[in-house]
Structures are given as C-alpha cells and as structure tokens.
Amino acid sequence: MRVLLVAGAALALSGCVETIAESRVKSALLEAGLNERNSACMAERMVDRLTIAQLRKLEGLKARKGEPVRPATLKGYVERVQRVGDAEVLTVTSSSAALCAVGLG
Length: 105
What we know:
The protein has helices at 2-14, 16-31, 36-49, 52-59, 74-81, 87-101. It is mainly α. The protein has one domain. Helix 5 (74-81) packs antiparallel against helix 6 (87-101). The longest helix is centred in the first third of the chain and has 16 residues, at 16-31.
C-alpha cells in the first residue's frame, strides 16, 4: 500500500497525471467533433481549471435522441455542455472555446 502511495505521489509531482488527463480530454473533444487545434487548446486550459470529477462529467456527454452524435460547431458543443449542470464546467468550457477559436488560448 505504501508503495502505491509513493508511486502516486511521484506521478503527480512529475506531471504524468496531468499529461494523461490532458490526453484523455483532448481525445474526448476530438470524439465530440471538435478539430485538432481547438481540442488541444481547450484540453490544455480545461485540465488546469477543472477537477477530475468535473472532467468526468464531460466524458459522459451524449447526444440526445434526434441530435447529431457530434455537434457541428464549438457553439453546439458548448450548448451540449450546459446539460452537465455545473456552472464552473460551463464557464471554463465556453471561455476555453472562445479563446481557442480566436487563437488566444
């Protein structure tokens, strides 16, 4: 048990956990239909500002009946994020989308 705690602490200190989280968030954004540039930019911002629990809420986003599986636009993705019901998640996602879309992220 002690070895697991030390290994976990070492991973956290080395940045591996953040790298893994960022990679997963980027993959989820790509799967949601966002382009490579926006997905990479948004993932970097989101992992710095949201908790793992909040990021997992985003992983669970699915299209509703009659909706396209992938939103066609950043705006469509942000609208879908509103369903999570977490104001901070919505704020971080929408600000990240806006900044990344104009190249400031």
